[in-house]
Amino acid sequence: MKYSNEELSKQLRCPEGAEARQIGENMFQSNCNMIFETINTLDIRPNSKVFEIGFGNGMHLSYLFERETTLKYQGVEISQAMVEESNLNNKELVKSGRAAFINTSESDFSFIPSSSFNYCFSVNTLYFWNNPQKYFDEIYRILDRNGTIAISFMSKSFGEGLPFTQVGFTFYETEDIEGFLFCSGFINVRSVMLTEDAISKNGQKVERSFVILSANKD
Predict the structure, then answer these.
(1) Residues 216, 122: Cα–Cα separation, whole Å
(2) pLDDT digit string (tens) for 49-97?
(3) pTM of this prediction?
(4) Which of 65, 102, 179, 217 could form a Cys-Cys staple with 143, CB 3.0–4.6 A?
(5) What is one GO biological process annotated to this record (predicted)?
């Protein structure tokens, strides 16, 4: 199915309907290197609890658990279709209680007790957060002391030039996100910019730059 730019933007925010599975697969292929680099940044310790915002089809969990087999994972996602896909793609992890995929409304983490996780990460979801400061405040709350956050996003100069991002996306400079982190109470904020060869959502080969911002809870 060929989408208009506006329709594609909506599907990237929240995949749904008959094409949701294909959208999820396309997103994973496009974003997998960003996801892997973000996971590497976390340097996950044994027996840790990891939280993710926006897990898509969950195909990256095999890589996450290869990095540390003793972790426990919980993710939230606004797309019910992606929750279903992730459960299908990670049956053994779900069955064993090592992974849980939860459908939730935007930025509603009220069901999560404070200081529940050691790590939190999110890749290419920031553009869709209606209130970024609320997200970062909630992430700070649910992280344990010395917990680590890693947020990855396309650079503003790259993202704003894509045809399908003209509606429904909000891009930020790195300094903007650093400001959100500091306002929430995070310390040791650090950033790295990477460049990769990627396939865009319309199938074109592009050179994409992205930023990984990480920080710690005081």
Answers:
(1) 15
(2) 999 999 999 999 999 999 999 999 999 999 999 999 999 999 999 999 9
(3) 0.93
(4) 217
(5) methylation
